[in-house]
Amino acid sequence: MLPQLVGNRPPTIKVKEIALRNCSSPGLPKTDKGQEKGVRRVEWKGLVGALLGARLPSCDPGPLCRKRAIIKKASDLEYRIQRRTLFKEDFINYVQYEINLLELIQRRRKRIGYSFKKDEIENSIVHRVQGVFRRASAKWKDDVQLWLSYVVFCKKWATKTQLSKVFSAMLAIHSNKPALWIMAAKWEMEDRLSSESARQLFLRALRFHPECPKLYQEYFRMELMHAEKLRKEKEEFEKASMDMENPDYSEEILKGELARIIYKNSVSIIKGAEFHVSLLSIAQLFDFSKDLQKEIYDDLQALHTDDPLTWDYVARRELEIESQTEEQPTTKQAKAVEVGRKEERCCAVYEEAVKTLPTEAMWKCYITFCLERFTKKTNSGFLRGKRLERTMTAFRKAHELKLLQEFQYKQLIKSLLSHKFLREALEVAVAGTELFRDSGTMWQMKLQVLIDSKSPDIAMQFEECFVHLKHQVCLSLWISWAEWSEGAKSQEDTEAVFKKALLAVIGADSVTLKDKYLDWAYRSGGYKKARAVFKSLQESRPFSVDFFRKMIQFEKEQESCNMANIREYYERALREFGSADSDLWMDYIKEELNHPLGRPENCGQIYWRAMKMLQGESAEAFVAKHAMHQTGHL
């Protein structure tokens, strides 16, 4: 048997009547303060009680205990939003609870196929949530996120008329936000299918924001969508052989005349090729607007010849123009040749552009296009070779004019290296370091190309690099030199590089270098060499904890492990990091306990030394770890 809902809805009782009926005590005078507090308390309870009474029909159909839990939770939430001091979080929690309840009821109905009093129950919850949203949005009018949450709720649960009212209220307060106008107009156009309402919203928005490019773009798009919709409707009527007397189907509107008017008005207000190109890109989404596209394109060339963006757009447009021949290429080779021709036409436009407008911005557009085409995947060796040739030709011209930025050299080097064009990459790298002699990253890339190409002049280039960068700390370059030397030179040469680096790199940057030096010493000369390096660096602060831990690990890897040396390394490490590193103290204690030559009797002394040196949270962490270790949990 299906579960039954709570009984009939109780009769509506006004809050004032509840308060008067419950506080009728003739023994108390009207001026008594206790009576006034009692009246206020009863009014409060009466208000919440009346609001909860309206909830009873919307309780979840099910066991009584579940209904009690729902009413108890709702009571708490209702009390919170009826207080004198209101908090936004209370309203949000109330709304979230009601939405969760609504979704739970819907899922349960779907699962058990139960539809009894569906509209009455769920509509009452929706109306209640709307009421909470109205109160919250009236209290916190400036909270856009709250309004947007209200809109999202109405889109899912409320009627279109209600959502339209919400948009109107929101825009009356937040008329200074173009994105909200666009959202409302888009909803009117796409959900309510009301082009006229969307148009009116855009016109109102433009009164507030007469110079907002985004509003003009979306209004332009909307009118083109409207014209496209009318054209489709007309086609359907014509297919059905129905008479059309609707005045909306005028030829001017069907051709996008309204969009053309918006275009003309907008470009007279908003200058610049970028906005012009954005409107042209929108118009290209609609096949019927060829005449409008041509008009915008011609205006772009006429009005913005001195803008690199215009030339960039005109050049890239050549890729979209199909071949004039009737027969389309069928084989892969023919298609590659056709793509090559299109790219040649693009480059011809760019060549004309850099002659007409020889600026850094124009060359940037040209080089960017060449790089995009060069990095585009292709199986055609012919096409790949042509792209490389065009890219290098454009680069050489721009480099001679010194109109390229540093990042463009780096982009080109990376692209060439990824395709294994080492000779060309070296040419670009050499040119880059000539122009940007003080750039450490440019030298880094040049040296990397030299290493990849196995040049015999690498050591000399490293020396030259540090001559130009003598006032800079180039840790990565020193490490690169040492790593290259380790594989290509003798141990003496590599150690000389490390020693030079330690003289040049000081402070915190030297920490990594010392760790690298110690690692290299152990790899190349074993423990004896590593200990010698450690001894030579032990007073050259700063260090890292790993510097000492490495030596401890090296010692433990020896067949005849010397516990005295391990203690020495721990003691030196604790001098540097004993006041903050609790793990170092714990490892020292464990070493004395677990090592065959360790002295467990030293652990107590180490513990008390740690307690004296460690401070704050480090001391607390050490005590906790030590206790866990003693109980066998660590």
From TrEMBL:
Its main location: nucleus. GO terms for molecular function: snoRNA binding. GO terms for cellular component: chromosome; Pwp2p-containing subcomplex of 90S preribosome; small-subunit processome. Part of the small subunit (SSU) processome, first precursor of the small eukaryotic ribosomal subunit. During the assembly of the SSU processome in the nucleolus, many ribosome biogenesis factors, an RNA chaperone and ribosomal proteins associate with the nascent pre-rRNA and work in concert to generate RNA folding, modifications, rearrangements and cleavage as well as targeted degradation of pre-ribosomal RNA by the RNA exosome. Involved in nucleolar processing of pre-18S ribosomal RNA. Coiled coil: none annotated. Residues 344-614 form the U3 small nucleolar RNA-associated protein 6 homolog C-terminal domain. This is U3 small nucleolar RNA-associated protein 6 homolog. It is found in: Nucleus, Nucleolus. Residues 68-128 form the U3 small nucleolar RNA-associated protein 6 N-terminal domain. The keyword Repeat applies. InterPro entries: HAT, TPR-like_helical_dom_sf, Utp6, UTP6_C, UTP6_N. SUPFAM superfamilies: TPR-like. It comes from the Eukaryota. Pfam families: U3_assoc_6, UTP6_C. Belongs to the UTP6 family. Keywords: Nucleus, Repeat, rRNA processing. Part of the small subunit (SSU) processome, composed of more than 70 proteins and the RNA chaperone small nucleolar RNA (snoRNA) U3. GO terms for biological process: maturation of SSU-rRNA from tricistronic rRNA transcript (SSU-rRNA, 5.8S rRNA, LSU-rRNA).
